[in-house]
Amino acid sequence: RLAGASKMNLVSLIMHGLSAVSVFADVVGVRLLLASTLIAGGSVAFALGVLAVKFGTDLAIPGWTTSALGFCSVAILQSLTMAFLLAMFTLSGRNNGGFLPLRDYAYFILGVDVLQGGASAVSTTPPLRKAN
């Protein structure tokens, strides 16, 4: 916004932003999938480092290893669950038919029901007005 306060409330702004991002749902899904696998990999590396400090040196604080491994296991389970859900949501979106202008223009432009044999004469929307 260049000047003035927004006339949209917080919910409308968030929905507007999510609608803009939803156009690129496949790209966003893949990037979030990669990010969640990186988080899981980082958590595994951190857990291995904690175990190396615990058993390889005398620097470990009593009880710290258990807390750190618990945190890592929660982070790993959460990121793997998120990766699985993102993959399923991205794949389920492929079942929805997309908009093909050559096929779907009549419903949106002409306001007619489109049957398999062609356009019917039944109008579902008011006719478009011609501009003066």
Tell me what you see in this structure.
A hairpin with a 2-residue loop joins strand 1 (112-115) and strand 2 (118-123). The chain contains 4 helices and 2 strands. It is elongated, with a radius of gyration of 26 Å. It has helices at 10-22, 25-56, 64-92, 101-110; strands at 112-115, 118-123. The chain has a two-stranded antiparallel ribbon. Helix 2 packs antiparallel against helix 3. By secondary structure, it is mainly alpha-helical. Helix content is 64%, strand content 8%.
How are the SSEs placed, and which strands pair?
Blueprint: H1 10-22, H2 25-56, H3 64-92, H4 101-110, E1 112-115, E2 118-123
Antiparallel strand pairs: 1-2
Helix content: 55-70%
Oligomer: single chain
Largest sheet: 2 strands, antiparallel
**Order of neighbouring strands in the sheet with most strands:** 1-2
Report Rg: 26 Å
Flag low-confidence runs. none
How many β strands by DSSP? Answer: 2
Supply the number of helical segments: 4
Classify the beta-strand content into a percent band.
5-15%
Mean pLDDT metric = 79
List SSEs in N-to-C order.
Answer: HHHHEE
Question: What class, by secondary structure content?
Answer: mainly alpha
End-to-end distance, in Å? 32 Å
Shape type: elongated
Summarize the structure.
By secondary structure, the protein is mainly alpha-helical. The chain has helices at 10-22, 25-56, 64-92, 101-110; strands spanning 112-115, 118-123. The chain is built from 4 helices and 2 strands; from the N terminus they run ααααββ.
